[in-house]
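From the shared-data thread, chain only:
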Amino acid sequence: MATALPSSAPGTAPPPPRMATKDLLTLICTIIAAAAVLAGAIRGDGQREQRLQQVETQVRQLEQREDRRQDLLNAIDVRTARIEATLQMMTRGAGK
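Structure, as tokens:
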């Protein structure tokens, strides 16, 4: 003898199925993984910003150092030109 499946009353919806533990665990793991990825991206962006600021500071310092070096070389060129002029005057005067 075959038993008939209980049928729900006509016009009523079956009760919603309960979420299985496996499905709930999968959902929780997915949410945690997404949060970890997001946190890593935010942290990485902060480190990138800090590194960018360090590089900008180093570039500014190198530019200032180059400017000072160029000023020193210009001063040496002017002094060398004066010394050469003086030597030329001295050698002309000695040749007379």
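The radius of gyration is 42 Å.
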